[in-house]
Amino acid sequence: MWRLEAYDYALPEGRIADRPAAPRESARLLHVAREMADCTVGELPRLLRPGDLLVVNDTRVLPVRLEGRRGIARVAVLLHKRTTDGFWRAFARPAKRLKPGDTIVFAPDFAARVEAREEGEVTLRFEMAEDEFARKLARHGAAPLPPYIARPPDARDRVDYQTMFARADGAVAAPTAGLHFTPGMIAELERRGVARAAVTLHVGAGTFLPVKTEDLRAHRMHREWAQVPAETVAAIAATRKARGRVVAVGTTALRALESAALSGTLAPFAGETDLFVGPDFRFRVADVLMTNFHLPRSTLLVLVSAFAGYGRIRAAYDHAIAEGYRFFSYGDACFLERAP
C-alpha cells in the first residue's frame, strides 16, 4: 500500500475536537486488536498489565504563535525551528510582503528582524539573550494549535495543549496522545505495576505538512530532534526480560524508539531523525501504540496502518466515524496492538 490515495477517508463535518474531553479520562479509547472494543481512557489500567512499560514523550511545547506588526500591517508568525542562538525559522502571514531588513514588533520590548525569506518561510533574528527571549516568548506567545482547529488559542490552551510529562523545551506541536494522562491515572497504573520511561522528540511544524507525492516511496520526512536516554534503553531491556510489553504513548515516542533501533539493536540515541515509517517497516521496539486519530493522507496514518495492519486501521476508522468519535489533537484515542 504505497499509494497515498489508499490512506484517504472522509470525515463528517463537526468531528474535529476543538477542546479536550473533560475530565481527560472520559475521552473514548478504541481498542484495536484481533477484535475491536469501545472503551474510555479511564479504562486504560484494565488494558495494561503488570510489568508493562509506558514510554512517554517528555517534550515541552513552546508558545511559539505570535501576532505582530510591520509598520501598520498585521503579521501572524509561527516559529517552528530554532537554528542558532537568536535565530528562528518561521511561517508568516503574509510572508510575501516581508523582506530582509524588516522589523516585526510583537510588543514594545519584543521584536524580530527579518534576515531572509525563501519558500514561504522567513528567518527571524531576536537580538536578546536566550533567557530574556524565553521570558518574553512566555509572556507574549500563544499555544501553537494545529491549523485544523479554527478558533484562536486562548489561556486554557496553555494548559490543555501541554502534557503532564512535559519537561524539555523544544516542541512546536504537542505529542497529543500524552494529553489524555492525569496524575491520578499514572498513580493507578503505578499501583498496578505498570512502569514508565521517557524519550524526547521535539515535534516540529512539519508534522502538519501535507504529503506531496502519490508514491510514498518518494516522500522525504522533515527532521526532528530526538533523544532516547540510556535509562530508557535499560528499562526496555528489563521489561523484555520480564516478558512485559513496551507501550509507546504516541507516534512521536514510537518514532524516537524505532530511530534508536535502526541498527537492529536498541541503543541510546541523541540527534535528528527523519524516520518515515512506511508500509514495509520492521518494528523492533514497540508492542502497543496509544495514539489519537490522524488526518487523511498523512504520514501518521501510514505509520499506524503499518503498525496495526492496514485492514484493521481502515475498519477502526470506519467504526470510529460511525460511532461518533472525536478526531485529531484534542480528540479521542486508539489502543493499537501490533499486528503479527
Describe the structure.
The chain is of the alpha/beta class and 340 residues long. It folds into two domains: 4-61 and 161-337, 3-Layer(aba) Sandwich (QueA-like); 65-141, QueA-like (Thrombin, subunit H, Beta Barrel), CATH 2.40.10. It has helices at residues 44-47, 130-140, 155-160, 183-191, 230-241, 251-259, 299-308, 310-322; strands at 28-32, 36-40, 53-57, 59-61, 65-70, 73-84, 87-93, 103-107, 110-118, 121-125, 168-171, 195-201, 224-228, 246-249, 269-273, 288-292, 333-337. The strands form three sheets. A nine-stranded mixed β-sheet has the order 2-1-17-16-14-3-12-13-15, with helices on one face. Strand 9 and strand 10 form a beta hairpin. The two termini are 17 Å apart.
